[in-house]
Specification:
- By secondary structure, the protein is an alpha/beta fold.
- The protein has one domain: Acetylglutamate kinase-like (Carbamate kinase, 3-Layer(aba) Sandwich).
- The radius of gyration is 17 Å and the shape is globular.
C-alpha cells in the first residue's frame, strides 16, 4: 500500500494490520474533571480496542500520564525526577487499561521501560511482536525509561521497532487544525498534511523529535478524536477520519 494512501474501496479488510495507538493521559480521565482514572473512559477505550482486535489487527498502545502527573508543570522539582514520576503515572494508566481489557476477555500485556517485574514485563521488542502475533494488545508504559523524552517520541520509536504500519494519535479534537479550535472558531482542519509542514508551522500533532522520526521512516500518523465511538476501528479500516500526516507521496 503506498505511503499516504488513506482510503480504500470495495475492501472489507483493514487497511493496516499492525498499528500503534498513542493515547494521552486525558483519554483515561473523566471528561468532567480531566484528572484521575475514569472507569467509564477506560472501559470505552477497551471496547474500542476489542473491536480492532476482532478485525484481526495487531494493536500496541503507548499511554501518557498527564491525567495523574504533569512533570513539566511541577515547580521546584528537578526535571529529571519529575519525568520519572510521570513515567510511573503512565504505568498506572497502562495497568488500568489492561484491567479493562481483561474484563472483556481481550488478552493483553503491559511492558515497561522501567523494571518492575511484579506488575509488568520489561520492554522487549521481539516479545512484544510475539504477543501481537498471538492477538494480544500490548501496552507500553514508562515512556523511554529516561527523562527528557516525551511519550510522543516513545510512540514513534516503539512503532518503528515493532514494525507498525501507522501511528494512530488519539486526541480530544478531530484532527490537526490551523489553530486551537477550542479557542479560535475560525480554525480550519486539514484532511492531510505533510510532516515538513507540521514541523515548519509548529502544529500540535506530536513533538518535533517524534515527527522527525516518522518523516525519516515514512511512518504515517492519523490524528483523530478518540472519544468518538468507533473511530479507532474507522482509522484502521482506512476511512478518511481526522487528519493524515504523511510524506507527500500520494
Amino acid at each position: 500500500m503506498p505511503e499516504g494512501d488513506h482510503t480504500r474501496e470495495g475492501d472489507e479488510r483493514p487497511l493496516y494490520h499492525r498499528v500503534l495507538l498513542k493515547l494521552s493521559g486525558d483519554a483515561f480521565a473523566s471528561h468532567d474533571t480531566g484528572y484521575g482514572i475514569s472507569t467509564e473512559s477506560t472501559g470505552l477505550l477497551a471496547r474500542e480496542l476489542a473491536d480492532v482486535v476482532d478485525l484481526g489487527v495487531q494493536c500496541a498502545v503507548v499511554v501518557g500520564g498527564g491525567n495523574i502527573w504533569r512533570g513539566r508543570q511541577a515547580p521546584g522539582i528537578d526535571r529529571a525526577r519529575a519525568d520519572y514520576m510521570g513515567m510511573l503515572a503512565t504505568v498506572m494508566n497502562a495497568l488500568a487499561l489492561q484491567d479493562a481489557l481483561e474484563k472483556i476477555h481481550v488478552p493483553s500485556r503491559v511492558q515497561t521501560a522501567i523494571h518492575m517485574a511484579q506488575v509488568a514485563e520489561p520492554y522487549i521488542p521481539l516479545r512484544a511482536m510475539r504477543h501481537l502475533e498471538k492477538g494480544r494488545v500490548v501496552v507500553f508504559a514508562a515512556g523511554m525509561g529516561a527523562p527528557f523524552f516525551s511519550t510522543d517520541t516513545t510512540a514513534a520509536q516503539r512503532a518503528l521497532e515493532i514494525g507498525a504500519q501507522a501511528i494512530l494519535k488519539g486526541t480530544k479534537v478531530d484532527g490537526v487544525y490551523t489553530a486551537d479550535p477550542h479557542v479560535d472558531p475560525t480554525a480550519e482542519r486539514f484532511e492531510t498534511i505533510e510532516y515538513i509542514d507540521v514541523l515548519r508551522e509548529g502544529y500540535q500533532v506530536m513533538d518535533a523529535t517524534a515527527i522527525s522520526l516518522c518523516m525519516e521512516n515514512k511512518l504515517p500518523i492519523i490524528v483523530f478524536d478518540v472519544r468518538q465511538e468507533g473511530n479507532i476501528r474507522r482509522a484502521v479500516s482506512g476511512e478518511p477520519i481526522g487528519t493524515l500526516v504523511h510524506g507527500g507521496i500520494r
